[in-house]
Structure formats: C-alpha cells, structure tokens
Amino acid sequence: MEILRGISSLSPNSSTFLEVKELTDLCTMLQCDVVSLSNEAEVLKPMLKQSKSKDIVDLYFEVSPLQQAFPTIIHLLIGAMTIPVSSTTTERTF
Q1: Please, what is the end-to-end C-alpha distance for the chain in angstroms?
Q2: In this model, does residue 38 exceed pLDDT 80?
Q3: Which single residue of 16, 32, 63, 79 has CA 20 to 30 Å from 2?
Q4: 48 CB neighbour count, 10 Å cutoff
C-alpha cells in the first residue's frame, strides 16, 4: 500500500506531491538513495509551482531535460510508469 502512496505522491495533482515521507518506500523498492531524493524534491517542488503537468507522464516529460539535476526523481517516475503495465500484463496471462 505504501508503494501505491508513493506513486500517488508523484502525481502533480496529489496533495502529497513530492513528499519524501510518502516516497520513501517506493524509493527503497527501486533502490534509490533517500537522501538524494530529499534534496532533489526540495529543489524541484518550487520549480514546479507554475507547472501545467496533469499526471506522472506529463511530469516526466517536463523534468526529463533536467536528468542530470534530478536523476533520482526521474528514476522514480520511470518506475511508477512501469509498475501498472507490469501488473496488468501478469494479470492478463491468467
């Protein structure tokens, strides 16, 4: 359940957008550094105040040009976009 909360926290529309507390379990699962995540989130949050991103995919395309500055967040975004596809593929095989 915590991993789903983490994915939800990556959505720009979420009330917990980029809250490190919510992202920690997802970060651990994807083997990311929580300290780096905290630093990146602290810098990125104010940058995205005027963002028009509506979902995780929009956010990924907005942040991806800044990959050197936000590698951990981009890694989480890619993981979050991959998990739903992986889950439904497995369910379809039954």
Answers
A1: 23
A2: yes
A3: 63
A4: 15
How far apart are alpha carbons 60 and 78 in whole angstroms? 8
Burial class (CB in 10 A: 0-12, 13-18, 19+), 66: middle
Q: How many CA atoms lie within 13 A of 15 on its CB side?
A: 0
pLDDT value of position 3: 86
Q: What is the CA radius of gyration of the chain?
A: 13
Contact 55, 49 (CB under 8 A): no
State the amino acid at position 79 in one-letter form: G
Element (DSSP H or E) covering residue 71: helix 71-92
Predicted pLDDT at 59: 94
Tokens of 86: 């992986």
Residue with tokens 């028009």: 52
Q: List the structure tokens of 37.
A: 């995540």
